[in-house]
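Self-study notes.
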Amino acid sequence: MKKLLLLIPVLMSLASVPSLAESPCPIHLHNSRYDVCYSCKRKTPLSVTYEIRREDVEGKRKRPAFSFRPDYRLPAKCRSYPKDYAGTGYDRGHLAPAGIFGGWKERKETFLMSNVAPQKPSVNRGVWAKIERFARIMAVRYGKVEVTTGVCFDGERSFIRHGVEIPDRWYKIIRIPNRKEPVVFVVPNRKGEKENIKFFLCTYDILFNICANNE
Protein backbone atom coordinates (compact mmCIF):
# COMPACT_ATOMS: atom_id res chain seq x y z
CA MET A 1 0.00 0.00 0.00
CA LYS A 2 2.83 2.43 0.82
CA LYS A 3 4.29 2.06 -2.68
CA LEU A 4 0.90 2.86 -4.20
CA LEU A 5 0.43 5.94 -2.04
CA LEU A 6 3.88 7.20 -3.00
CA LEU A 7 2.68 7.30 -6.62
CA ILE A 8 0.02 9.93 -5.89
CA PRO A 9 2.19 13.03 -6.61
CA VAL A 10 3.20 11.53 -9.97
CA LEU A 11 -0.37 10.59 -10.83
CA MET A 12 -1.72 14.03 -9.99
CA SER A 13 0.63 15.64 -12.52
CA LEU A 14 -1.30 14.15 -15.45
CA ALA A 15 -3.27 16.48 -17.72
CA SER A 16 -6.93 17.23 -16.99
CA VAL A 17 -9.24 15.38 -19.37
CA PRO A 18 -12.90 14.66 -20.11
CA SER A 19 -14.34 11.14 -20.09
CA LEU A 20 -14.29 8.83 -23.09
CA ALA A 21 -17.90 8.16 -22.17
CA GLU A 22 -18.71 11.56 -23.71
CA SER A 23 -18.18 9.97 -27.16
CA PRO A 24 -21.30 8.57 -28.91
CA CYS A 25 -22.46 5.30 -27.32
CA PRO A 26 -23.99 2.55 -29.50
CA ILE A 27 -26.14 1.04 -26.69
CA HIS A 28 -26.57 2.46 -23.20
CA LEU A 29 -27.53 0.17 -20.28
CA HIS A 30 -28.35 1.52 -16.81
CA ASN A 31 -27.83 -0.54 -13.65
CA SER A 32 -28.23 0.26 -9.96
CA ARG A 33 -24.68 1.54 -9.45
CA TYR A 34 -23.03 1.53 -12.87
CA ASP A 35 -23.79 2.43 -16.48
CA VAL A 36 -22.62 0.56 -19.56
CA CYS A 37 -21.77 1.73 -23.07
CA TYR A 38 -22.15 -1.48 -25.09
CA SER A 39 -21.13 -2.43 -28.62
CA CYS A 40 -23.33 -4.87 -30.53
CA LYS A 41 -20.59 -5.05 -33.18
CA ARG A 42 -17.99 -6.23 -30.62
CA LYS A 43 -20.42 -8.10 -28.30
CA THR A 44 -18.61 -6.48 -25.38
CA PRO A 45 -18.99 -3.30 -23.35
CA LEU A 46 -16.87 -0.39 -24.58
CA SER A 47 -16.87 1.32 -21.18
CA VAL A 48 -18.61 1.45 -17.83
CA THR A 49 -18.86 4.31 -15.34
CA TYR A 50 -19.35 3.98 -11.59
CA GLU A 51 -18.54 5.48 -8.21
CA ILE A 52 -16.51 3.77 -5.48
CA ARG A 53 -17.52 4.85 -1.98
CA ARG A 54 -15.42 4.53 1.14
CA GLU A 55 -18.17 2.80 3.11
CA ASP A 56 -18.54 0.08 0.48
CA VAL A 57 -14.87 -0.96 0.36
CA GLU A 58 -13.56 -0.50 3.90
CA GLY A 59 -12.80 -3.73 5.77
CA LYS A 60 -12.64 -7.32 4.54
CA ARG A 61 -15.25 -8.64 2.15
CA LYS A 62 -15.96 -12.10 0.83
CA ARG A 63 -16.04 -12.53 -2.93
CA PRO A 64 -19.70 -12.85 -3.98
CA ALA A 65 -20.76 -16.30 -5.21
CA PHE A 66 -22.82 -15.30 -8.24
CA SER A 67 -22.93 -16.90 -11.69
CA PHE A 68 -22.42 -15.01 -14.93
CA ARG A 69 -25.59 -14.67 -17.00
CA PRO A 70 -26.62 -13.14 -20.34
CA ASP A 71 -28.12 -9.65 -20.38
CA TYR A 72 -31.54 -10.17 -21.95
CA ARG A 73 -32.06 -6.41 -22.30
CA LEU A 74 -29.83 -6.70 -25.37
CA PRO A 75 -31.07 -7.98 -28.73
CA ALA A 76 -30.18 -11.65 -29.26
CA LYS A 77 -27.68 -10.80 -32.00
CA CYS A 78 -25.75 -8.56 -29.57
CA ARG A 79 -25.49 -10.87 -26.56
CA SER A 80 -22.54 -12.83 -25.27
CA TYR A 81 -22.90 -15.92 -23.08
CA PRO A 82 -20.78 -17.44 -20.28
CA LYS A 83 -20.00 -20.54 -22.40
CA ASP A 84 -18.43 -18.32 -25.09
CA TYR A 85 -15.35 -18.03 -22.84
CA ALA A 86 -14.94 -21.71 -21.95
CA GLY A 87 -11.54 -23.11 -22.97
CA THR A 88 -10.51 -19.93 -24.84
CA GLY A 89 -7.61 -18.91 -22.59
CA TYR A 90 -9.42 -15.71 -21.56
CA ASP A 91 -11.10 -14.75 -18.30
CA ARG A 92 -14.52 -13.13 -18.14
CA GLY A 93 -13.07 -9.77 -17.15
CA HIS A 94 -15.37 -7.46 -15.16
CA LEU A 95 -15.35 -3.81 -16.18
CA ALA A 96 -17.28 -2.85 -13.03
CA PRO A 97 -15.85 -5.13 -10.31
CA ALA A 98 -18.25 -6.79 -7.89
CA GLY A 99 -16.20 -6.06 -4.77
CA ILE A 100 -16.70 -2.27 -4.87
CA PHE A 101 -20.43 -2.41 -4.17
CA GLY A 102 -22.04 -3.07 -0.81
CA GLY A 103 -25.49 -4.38 -1.75
CA TRP A 104 -26.47 -7.89 -2.89
CA LYS A 105 -28.42 -6.63 -5.92
CA GLU A 106 -25.63 -4.26 -6.95
CA ARG A 107 -23.03 -7.02 -6.85
CA LYS A 108 -25.24 -9.48 -8.70
CA GLU A 109 -25.66 -6.99 -11.56
CA THR A 110 -21.90 -6.96 -12.15
CA PHE A 111 -22.18 -10.60 -13.30
CA LEU A 112 -24.25 -9.65 -16.32
CA MET A 113 -22.33 -10.50 -19.50
CA SER A 114 -22.85 -6.91 -20.67
CA ASN A 115 -20.22 -6.03 -18.01
CA VAL A 116 -17.67 -8.55 -19.28
CA ALA A 117 -14.95 -8.66 -21.95
CA PRO A 118 -12.17 -11.19 -22.72
CA GLN A 119 -9.14 -10.53 -20.51
CA LYS A 120 -5.89 -12.47 -20.28
CA PRO A 121 -5.69 -14.25 -16.89
CA SER A 122 -2.20 -12.85 -16.22
CA VAL A 123 -3.60 -9.33 -16.68
CA ASN A 124 -6.85 -9.94 -14.79
CA ARG A 125 -5.15 -11.47 -11.76
CA GLY A 126 -1.97 -9.40 -11.96
CA VAL A 127 -1.55 -5.73 -12.83
CA TRP A 128 -5.29 -5.15 -13.35
CA ALA A 129 -6.07 -6.40 -9.84
CA LYS A 130 -3.44 -3.96 -8.52
CA ILE A 131 -4.98 -1.05 -10.44
CA GLU A 132 -8.41 -1.92 -9.05
CA ARG A 133 -6.90 -2.07 -5.57
CA PHE A 134 -5.36 1.36 -6.12
CA ALA A 135 -8.82 2.74 -7.02
CA ARG A 136 -10.25 1.31 -3.79
CA ILE A 137 -7.39 2.84 -1.76
CA MET A 138 -8.14 6.23 -3.30
CA ALA A 139 -11.84 5.85 -2.40
CA VAL A 140 -10.95 5.13 1.22
CA ARG A 141 -8.48 8.00 1.31
CA TYR A 142 -10.74 10.63 -0.31
CA GLY A 143 -14.23 9.32 0.56
CA LYS A 144 -15.17 8.41 -3.00
CA VAL A 145 -13.83 8.32 -6.56
CA GLU A 146 -15.51 8.29 -9.96
CA VAL A 147 -14.23 5.67 -12.37
CA THR A 148 -14.53 4.92 -16.08
CA THR A 149 -13.26 1.50 -17.12
CA GLY A 150 -13.11 0.50 -20.76
CA VAL A 151 -11.53 -1.55 -23.51
CA CYS A 152 -9.84 -0.55 -26.79
CA PHE A 153 -9.60 -2.29 -30.15
CA ASP A 154 -6.90 -2.01 -32.81
CA GLY A 155 -7.48 -2.43 -36.52
CA GLU A 156 -6.95 -6.22 -36.65
CA ARG A 157 -9.89 -8.13 -35.16
CA SER A 158 -9.75 -11.42 -33.25
CA PHE A 159 -12.52 -13.31 -31.51
CA ILE A 160 -13.40 -16.02 -29.04
CA ARG A 161 -16.67 -17.93 -29.55
CA HIS A 162 -19.95 -16.51 -30.85
CA GLY A 163 -18.29 -13.46 -32.38
CA VAL A 164 -17.14 -11.97 -29.06
CA GLU A 165 -14.23 -9.68 -29.92
CA ILE A 166 -10.98 -9.67 -27.93
CA PRO A 167 -9.92 -6.18 -26.82
CA ASP A 168 -6.31 -5.16 -27.38
CA ARG A 169 -6.14 -2.96 -24.27
CA TRP A 170 -7.98 -2.20 -21.04
CA TYR A 171 -8.04 1.25 -19.49
CA LYS A 172 -9.17 2.88 -16.26
CA ILE A 173 -9.73 6.59 -15.56
CA ILE A 174 -9.97 7.53 -11.87
CA ARG A 175 -11.33 10.96 -10.87
CA ILE A 176 -10.59 12.09 -7.32
CA PRO A 177 -12.72 14.77 -5.59
CA ASN A 178 -11.31 18.30 -5.64
CA ARG A 179 -8.54 17.21 -8.00
CA LYS A 180 -8.55 18.63 -11.49
CA GLU A 181 -6.40 15.85 -12.91
CA PRO A 182 -7.58 12.24 -13.25
CA VAL A 183 -5.40 9.16 -13.00
CA VAL A 184 -5.27 7.20 -16.28
CA PHE A 185 -3.99 3.65 -16.79
CA VAL A 186 -3.81 1.66 -20.05
CA VAL A 187 -2.86 -2.04 -19.99
CA PRO A 188 -2.19 -4.22 -23.08
CA ASN A 189 -4.35 -7.36 -23.02
CA ARG A 190 -1.55 -9.87 -23.40
CA LYS A 191 0.33 -12.41 -21.34
CA GLY A 192 3.38 -11.52 -19.30
CA GLU A 193 2.91 -7.80 -18.71
CA LYS A 194 5.00 -6.15 -15.98
CA GLU A 195 3.04 -5.83 -12.77
CA ASN A 196 4.15 -2.43 -11.46
CA ILE A 197 1.22 -0.13 -12.15
CA LYS A 198 3.40 2.93 -12.73
CA PHE A 199 4.47 1.41 -16.09
CA PHE A 200 0.86 1.76 -17.30
CA LEU A 201 0.24 5.43 -16.53
CA CYS A 202 -1.05 7.33 -19.55
CA THR A 203 -2.44 10.69 -20.64
CA TYR A 204 -5.96 11.08 -21.92
CA ASP A 205 -4.79 12.36 -25.30
CA ILE A 206 -2.80 9.18 -25.89
CA LEU A 207 -5.68 7.05 -24.62
CA PHE A 208 -8.12 8.81 -26.94
CA ASN A 209 -5.87 8.11 -29.94
CA ILE A 210 -5.42 4.47 -28.91
CA CYS A 211 -9.19 4.02 -28.72
CA ALA A 212 -9.93 5.74 -32.02
CA ASN A 213 -11.28 2.47 -33.47
CA ASN A 214 -13.86 1.99 -30.71
CA GLU A 215 -17.51 1.82 -31.81
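Second protein, same conventions, sequence then structure:
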Amino acid sequence: MKHLILDFFTNKPLSYKASDATLLLFRLFAGLMMLPYGITKIEKYDDYVIDFFGDPIGIGMVPSLWLTIFAQIPCAIFLTLGLFSRPTALVLAINMLVAVKYHWNDPFATVSLPLLFFGMYVILTLTGGGRYSIDSVLFRKKHQMRIDRDWYYKNSRLK
Protein backbone atom coordinates (compact mmCIF):
# COMPACT_ATOMS: atom_id res chain seq x y z
CA MET A 1 0.00 0.00 0.00
CA LYS A 2 2.85 2.35 0.85
CA HIS A 3 4.32 1.83 -2.64
CA LEU A 4 1.01 2.68 -4.30
CA ILE A 5 0.77 5.95 -2.42
CA LEU A 6 4.42 6.77 -3.08
CA ASP A 7 4.05 5.95 -6.79
CA PHE A 8 0.98 8.15 -7.00
CA PHE A 9 2.64 11.20 -5.46
CA THR A 10 5.99 10.78 -7.23
CA ASN A 11 4.37 10.67 -10.68
CA LYS A 12 5.78 7.26 -11.56
CA PRO A 13 4.80 6.28 -15.11
CA LEU A 14 2.04 3.71 -15.46
CA SER A 15 2.87 0.25 -16.71
CA TYR A 16 1.90 -0.31 -20.32
CA LYS A 17 -1.08 -2.43 -19.24
CA ALA A 18 -2.33 0.34 -16.97
CA SER A 19 -1.78 2.89 -19.76
CA ASP A 20 -3.78 0.77 -22.17
CA ALA A 21 -6.57 0.31 -19.62
CA THR A 22 -6.63 4.08 -19.05
CA LEU A 23 -6.84 4.67 -22.81
CA LEU A 24 -9.69 2.15 -23.00
CA LEU A 25 -11.65 4.01 -20.31
CA PHE A 26 -10.96 7.34 -22.01
CA ARG A 27 -12.07 6.00 -25.40
CA LEU A 28 -15.25 4.49 -23.92
CA PHE A 29 -16.06 7.75 -22.15
CA ALA A 30 -15.43 9.89 -25.24
CA GLY A 31 -17.53 7.66 -27.49
CA LEU A 32 -20.42 7.03 -25.13
CA MET A 33 -20.73 10.68 -24.11
CA MET A 34 -21.34 11.71 -27.73
CA LEU A 35 -24.15 9.23 -28.44
CA PRO A 36 -26.96 11.12 -26.65
CA TYR A 37 -26.25 14.22 -28.75
CA GLY A 38 -26.64 12.25 -31.98
CA ILE A 39 -29.74 10.43 -30.75
CA THR A 40 -31.31 13.78 -29.85
CA LYS A 41 -30.67 14.99 -33.40
CA ILE A 42 -32.54 11.98 -34.77
CA GLU A 43 -35.40 12.42 -32.29
CA LYS A 44 -35.75 16.12 -33.19
CA TYR A 45 -34.88 15.62 -36.85
CA ASP A 46 -37.91 17.53 -38.17
CA ASP A 47 -36.99 20.58 -36.10
CA TYR A 48 -33.34 20.46 -37.14
CA VAL A 49 -34.21 20.11 -40.85
CA ILE A 50 -35.99 23.46 -40.65
CA ASP A 51 -33.04 25.23 -39.03
CA PHE A 52 -29.83 23.33 -38.33
CA PHE A 53 -27.71 25.99 -36.69
CA GLY A 54 -27.94 28.20 -39.78
CA ASP A 55 -26.04 25.89 -42.18
CA PRO A 56 -22.71 25.86 -40.27
CA ILE A 57 -20.40 24.69 -43.08
CA GLY A 58 -22.12 26.09 -46.15
CA ILE A 59 -23.31 22.86 -47.79
CA GLY A 60 -26.95 23.18 -46.81
CA MET A 61 -28.77 22.44 -43.59
CA VAL A 62 -29.84 18.88 -44.40
CA PRO A 63 -26.41 17.62 -45.56
CA SER A 64 -24.81 19.32 -42.53
CA LEU A 65 -27.32 17.57 -40.27
CA TRP A 66 -26.63 14.20 -41.92
CA LEU A 67 -22.88 14.63 -41.49
CA THR A 68 -23.37 15.58 -37.86
CA ILE A 69 -25.59 12.57 -37.20
CA PHE A 70 -23.03 10.34 -38.96
CA ALA A 71 -20.26 11.73 -36.75
CA GLN A 72 -22.23 11.55 -33.53
CA ILE A 73 -23.75 8.08 -33.87
CA PRO A 74 -21.85 5.63 -36.13
CA CYS A 75 -18.47 7.26 -35.50
CA ALA A 76 -19.10 7.40 -31.75
CA ILE A 77 -20.07 3.72 -31.76
CA PHE A 78 -16.98 2.77 -33.78
CA LEU A 79 -14.79 4.80 -31.43
CA THR A 80 -16.34 3.12 -28.41
CA LEU A 81 -15.61 -0.29 -29.93
CA GLY A 82 -12.13 0.76 -30.96
CA LEU A 83 -12.84 0.12 -34.64
CA PHE A 84 -11.11 2.55 -37.02
CA SER A 85 -10.32 4.60 -33.93
CA ARG A 86 -8.13 7.27 -35.49
CA PRO A 87 -10.36 8.07 -38.50
CA THR A 88 -13.52 8.12 -36.39
CA ALA A 89 -11.87 10.30 -33.73
CA LEU A 90 -10.76 12.66 -36.52
CA VAL A 91 -14.31 12.89 -37.90
CA LEU A 92 -15.60 13.63 -34.40
CA ALA A 93 -12.86 16.23 -33.83
CA ILE A 94 -13.79 18.01 -37.07
CA ASN A 95 -17.46 17.87 -36.06
CA MET A 96 -16.61 19.47 -32.72
CA LEU A 97 -14.41 22.07 -34.40
CA VAL A 98 -17.44 23.15 -36.45
CA ALA A 99 -19.48 23.31 -33.22
CA VAL A 100 -16.77 25.44 -31.60
CA LYS A 101 -16.80 27.77 -34.63
CA TYR A 102 -20.58 28.07 -34.43
CA HIS A 103 -20.60 28.77 -30.67
CA TRP A 104 -17.43 30.90 -30.61
CA ASN A 105 -19.20 34.16 -29.66
CA ASP A 106 -21.49 32.48 -27.11
CA PRO A 107 -20.75 32.53 -23.37
CA PHE A 108 -17.84 30.35 -22.30
CA ALA A 109 -20.20 27.89 -20.58
CA THR A 110 -21.70 27.14 -24.01
CA VAL A 111 -18.47 26.90 -26.03
CA SER A 112 -16.58 24.92 -23.38
CA LEU A 113 -18.38 21.61 -24.01
CA PRO A 114 -17.53 21.38 -27.72
CA LEU A 115 -13.98 22.48 -26.84
CA LEU A 116 -13.66 19.65 -24.32
CA PHE A 117 -14.99 17.13 -26.83
CA PHE A 118 -12.63 18.53 -29.47
CA GLY A 119 -9.66 18.07 -27.13
CA MET A 120 -10.64 14.48 -26.31
CA TYR A 121 -11.01 13.56 -29.97
CA VAL A 122 -7.71 15.17 -30.94
CA ILE A 123 -5.98 13.13 -28.23
CA LEU A 124 -7.65 9.93 -29.48
CA THR A 125 -6.72 10.81 -33.08
CA LEU A 126 -3.09 11.01 -31.99
CA THR A 127 -3.03 7.95 -29.70
CA GLY A 128 -5.35 5.61 -31.55
CA GLY A 129 -7.55 3.03 -29.86
CA GLY A 130 -4.87 1.33 -27.80
CA ARG A 131 -4.20 -2.30 -27.09
CA TYR A 132 -7.76 -3.07 -25.94
CA SER A 133 -9.49 -2.22 -29.21
CA ILE A 134 -10.73 -4.03 -32.25
CA ASP A 135 -8.10 -2.13 -34.26
CA SER A 136 -5.38 -3.78 -32.23
CA VAL A 137 -6.77 -7.22 -32.94
CA LEU A 138 -7.36 -6.62 -36.65
CA PHE A 139 -4.42 -4.50 -37.73
CA ARG A 140 -1.37 -5.20 -35.58
CA LYS A 141 0.69 -8.29 -35.20
CA LYS A 142 0.96 -9.33 -31.58
CA HIS A 143 4.68 -9.91 -31.86
CA GLN A 144 5.29 -6.44 -33.29
CA MET A 145 3.20 -4.86 -30.55
CA ARG A 146 5.25 -6.62 -27.89
CA ILE A 147 8.53 -5.48 -29.45
CA ASP A 148 7.35 -1.87 -29.72
CA ARG A 149 6.18 -1.72 -26.11
CA ASP A 150 9.25 -3.49 -24.72
CA TRP A 151 11.55 -1.12 -26.61
CA TYR A 152 9.64 1.92 -25.41
CA TYR A 153 9.61 0.95 -21.74
CA LYS A 154 13.19 -0.28 -21.75
CA ASN A 155 14.45 2.98 -23.25
CA SER A 156 12.19 5.43 -21.43
CA ARG A 157 13.00 4.56 -17.81
CA LEU A 158 15.37 6.68 -15.85
CA LYS A 159 18.40 4.76 -14.72
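Instructor comment on the second fold: Residues 16-43 form the longest helix (28 residues).
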